[in-house]
Amino acid sequence: MAEVGGGSVDAVAAVRRIDDDLPVEVVDLLTWLRVERGRSPNTLAAYRNDLRAYVAWLDDRSLTIATVSEPDLNDYVAHLRDEGKAGSSIKRSLVAVRGLHRFLAEENEGRPDPSALLEMPKVAKGLPKALTEAEVGRLLDAVVGDDPLARRDRAILEVLYGTGLRISELVGLSLADVDLDAGLLRAFGKGAKERIVPVGRFATRSLVAWLDAGGRPLLEPDQWARRDDAEALFLNTRGGRLSRQGAWIVVRRVGDRVGLGSRLTPHVLRHSCATHMLEHGADIRTVQELLGHASISTTQVYTLVSTQRLLSVYRSAHPRATVR
Fold it and tell me: Which phi-psi region, left, alpha or beta, contains residue 236 (left: φ > 0; alpha: ψ -120 to 50)?
């Protein structure tokens, strides 16, 4: 692993200020994840929370990160189960714990890694719940009006469904990331990985309307609070860069309008984009690249969705598909 010292001094100092209540070993890991690996603030926050809970558990048992053993870690897994944690939550916690001990073992040659043989809990893969194409159509048609907020909200929904972007990628878009003449945008995914994503006709049309004189310019403040706000593709009503929460609220508000309620989240639109593309014959590798999945196995879950939907339609429509 690369040394922590290879990163920005300011970034290192920032991490240390935030985490001065944590053991130095945890701070070093978080610093390395941020500076050397470019992990997102959300990933760092998840590691921080999981490791803070782990350290508290160690303290309660008069253990330390340096003295914990493999049996102790098995006890920690049992503790998480006793707390009623879901398998996915336990697995996420153990990823952070294993990451910490692996980091320390590799940074300090000869230091044992008590988590090396720790078994991760098996988590059943839930199938993503995509909307039907008719439901997506009702959702996209539900944004009416020509005022700046209507133009913005329509563009947000069209881009989320049309490109399969994550909500963090959407709100991270800047004006320079969009080339409407070429029908392309540049997204920065997990780990700040850059990819080029095509923008379809409907999404392009909605973005043109949003960037036109009657859209984004009317939300621009007289004086920008930050340079990042001035560069943002999507703005809030105060003229700042739209946040994840703000975009999430836009999606939920329109979803409530057409009766989708809690079924609809920004990620459901991403699921729907992938599922509908595969149903219309897209190659799975193309969908993988579009969504920015590091592993093809992540994308393959959408083929299961398409197969299940095919079986469901067949069983309901074919007169001899089921026993009556």
Answer: beta
Which two three-digit tokens encode residue 141?
């048609």
pLDDT digits (tens, 9 = 90+) for 132-186: 999 999 999 999 999 999 999 999 999 999 999 999 999 999 999 999 999 999 9
Distance CA 109, CA 112 (A): 9
State the Cα–Cα distance between residues 48 and 83, nearest whole angstrom. Answer: 19
Sorted by sequence, the CB contacts under 8 Å of residue 244 that are 6+ apart come out as: 167, 168, 171
Distance CA 160, CA 140 (A): 11
- Report the half-sphere exposure of 259 (CA within 13 A, side-chain side): 4
Taking alpha carbons only, the member of 152, 115, 160, 109 closest to residue 136 is 160
Instruction: Answer whether 241's CB lies under 8 Å from 228's CB.
Output: yes
Evaluate if pTM is beyond 0.70: no
Alpha carbon distance 68, 113 (integer Å): 10
Which residues in the chain are classed under CATH 1.10.443.10? Answer: 133-317
CA pair distance 270, 160, nearest whole angstrom = 6
* Active-site residue set: 166, 190, 267, 270, 293, 302
Q: Cβ(50)–Cβ(94) under 8 Å?
A: no
Q: What residues of the chain score a pLDDT lower than 70?
A: 1-20, 109, 123-128, 191, 304-314, 317-318, 320-324
Residue type present at position 52? R
Please name the fold of domain 133-317: hpI Integrase; Chain A (1.10.443)
Domain with CATH 1.10.150 in the chain: 4-107
Neighbours of 305 (CB within 10 A): 20
Dmax over Cα atoms in the chain, in whole Å?
71
Chosen CATH of 4-107 out of 1.10.3470, 1.10.150, 2.60.120, 3.30.750? 1.10.150
- In 3D space, the residue among 5, 93, 108 whose CA is nearest the CA of residue 47 turns out to be 93
Cα–Cα dist 100/102, whole Å: 6
